[in-house]
Amino acid sequence: MAMTGVDFGRHSNDYAQHRPGFPHSFYDRLETIVALKGIAALDLGTGPGVVALELARRGANVIGIDISRNQIDAARHLAADRGLSERARFLISRVEEIHLPDNSFDLATAGQCWGWFDEPLAMREVMRLLGPGGWLIVGQFCYLPRLDEVARATERLILEQNPDWKMAHFDGLYPWRIDALISGGFEFVEQFCYDHAQPFTHESWRGRIRTCNGVGSGAMKDEQVATFDAELAEMLRREFPHEPLAIRHRIWAVVVRKPQDAAR
Q1: Least packed by Cβ within 10 Å: which of 2, 21, 89, 119?
Q2: Angle, CA 4 vertex, CA 180 and CA 207 arms, to 5°
Q3: How many Å apart are CA 209 and CA 158, to the nearest integer?
Q4: Contact criterion met (CB below 8 Å) for 172 and 140
């Protein structure tokens, strides 16, 4: 079910500058599953184009979609800066209703976003847009407060400012999505999962946390975000003074396909 009360476009600059995308090892793994060079790819909930731009850098022809104009503007700016505008185009659209032709894509990706969609409608739309045998890869890249001291201390601060936040203490695993995608008509191929130490400066960790759905993209008002950010800066200076921080994250992904015998 799609979740409400969140606007990731509020902090598009922080997304573009400070929120890390999947590490190169994730895309290396994807390329053992599907050859990216020359394929037509659709990146759902593209945000500032983090996944779409890496797919384009590796040779895919990508359309990234997002409901937020601010995010799409950021993605187009980054594509131009990186010389990828010819292979990475960006459109404002809901994932549940994308005005593109049937069977247009070999691959669809959803990085850090699938849980924010109306899942039955999103699956139906992706099924329509993929050609027979087309791949859907749903991935997550989550910090791990149960295992990482910096992440755990940061979430304590978030909960002091936003005690109603329901997404703290997560373990980065999404096994229920496998059966949901199978029920939506996709063929299960595999899931994979591994941990990764992501480097951050104090500044970049603060920017990443401002994009969190419990902070700047969620219920906190701008003045609350500023207060929280100042408290986080002080906590990092006092408790974790040495940079860079190596913050433990978990990559989790499920790989499914549209059946080969699906009607075109």
Answers
A1: 2
A2: 100
A3: 9
A4: yes
Over the Cα atoms of the chain, what is R_g? 18
pLDDT at 74 over 70: yes
Query: Model's pTM, two decimal places?
Result: 0.89
What are the pLDDT digits (tens) for 14-40?
767 878 899 999 999 999 999 999 999
CA distances to 39, 125, 133, 140, 255 from 186, in Å = 20, 12, 10, 19, 10
* Cβ-based neighbour number of residue 133 at 10 Å: 13
Closest by Cα among 18, 16, 25 to 52: 16
Cα gap 161→24, rounded to integer Å: 34
Domain spans in the chain, listed from the N-terminal domain onward: 8-145+170-198+250-257
Own/partner pairs, 65-69, CB within 8 angstroms, 24+ separation: 65/90, 65/91, 65/92, 65/93, 65/95, 65/98, 66/90, 66/92, 66/93, 67/92, 67/93, 67/94, 67/95, 68/7, 68/8, 68/9, 68/12, 68/92, 69/9
End-to-end CA distance of the chain: 28
The pLDDT value given to residue 143: 97
Residue 1 above 50 pLDDT? Answer: no
Burial code (b: 16+ CB inside 10 Å, e: under 16) for 226-260 equals eebbeebeebbeeebeeeebebbbbbbbbbbbbee
Q: Which residues pair with 97 in a beta bridge?
A: 94
The answer to whether the CB of 75 falls within 8 A of the CB of 52 is yes
H-helix or E-strand containing 204?
Answer: helix 202-210
Residue 239 DSSP SS3: helix
| CATH class name, domain 8-145+170-198+250-257 | alpha beta
pLDDT digits (tens, 9 = 90+) for 197-254: 999 999 999 999 998 988 976 678 889 999 999 999 999 999 999 999 999 999 999 9
